[in-house]
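// run 5 | inverse folding | seed 20
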């Protein structure tokens, strides 16, 4: 589902009311959100619509990156585990393509490694879904004011640090992209079409990342991707 779903507030027929509504709309921060679960997207929309102008709601990481580049929102809400491109790697691209956007992860993952990786990827906030109804608007206000926000149950850990530099980490950005798509069960030709590279280049990256991780099979690659939140284990 790569379609961006835009949402606009209804405008009254009265001319004066129109002017007031237009002024309010311009004053509200613009938000883009991504989650591969329809019910979660709808819940987030209901929660945020009174305070933010929702410019789009998408279901996968690549649609998120494309929409953010086009819309240039003020705040971006993103899940960790999404099809085609996970939230961590989407955030890395968003830092370059939408530098003004403040990124908040909204996810079920509360494990330390996930939270740390989110901030390394460029997050400004991290909210666990079980607390979203109480904390998400607080997180949005905090990051839009220039601060950072982490769900209170997680703040005992030193999450917030400088984002990683380009090329840091065990795998390159391209290798992580190939890893996720392989773990999703996509054949090399389809992966090449998605990434705009040849099938041989896909196989090259696949072989390189298997050597880097010390893995020997697609099953082991898939297990690694699930354990690191790149694909869903469901």
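// decoded
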């Amino acid at each position: 589902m790569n379609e961006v779903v835009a949402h606009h507030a209804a405008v009254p027929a009265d001319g004066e009311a129109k002017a007031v509504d237009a002024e309010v709309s311009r004053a509200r921060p613009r938000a883009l959100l991504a989650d591969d679960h329809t019910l979660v997207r709808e819940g987030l929309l209901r929660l945020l619509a009174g305070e933010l102008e929702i410019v789009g709601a998408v279901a996968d990481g690549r649609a998120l990156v494309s929409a953010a580049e086009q819309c240039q929102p003020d705040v971006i809400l993103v899940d960790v585990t999404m099809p085609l491109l996970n939230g961590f790697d989407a955030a890395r691209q968003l830092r370059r393509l939408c530098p003004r956007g403040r990124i908040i992860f909204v996810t079920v993952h509360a494990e330390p490694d996930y939270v740390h990786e989110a901030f390394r990827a460029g997050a400004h906030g991290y909210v666990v879904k079980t607390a979203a109804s109480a904390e998400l608007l607080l997180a949005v206000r905090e990051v839009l004011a220039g601060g950072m926000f982490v769900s209170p149950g997680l703040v005992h850990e030193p999450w917030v640090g400088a984002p990683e530099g380009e090329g840091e980490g065990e795998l390159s950005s391209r290798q992580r992209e190939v890893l996720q798509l392989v773990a999703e069960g996509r054949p090399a030709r389809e992966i090449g079409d998605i990434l705009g590279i040849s099938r041989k280049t896909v196989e090259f990256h696949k072989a390189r990342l298997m050597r880097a991780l010390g893995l020997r099979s697609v099953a082991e690659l898939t297990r690694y991707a699930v354990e690191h939140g790149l694909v869903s284990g469901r």
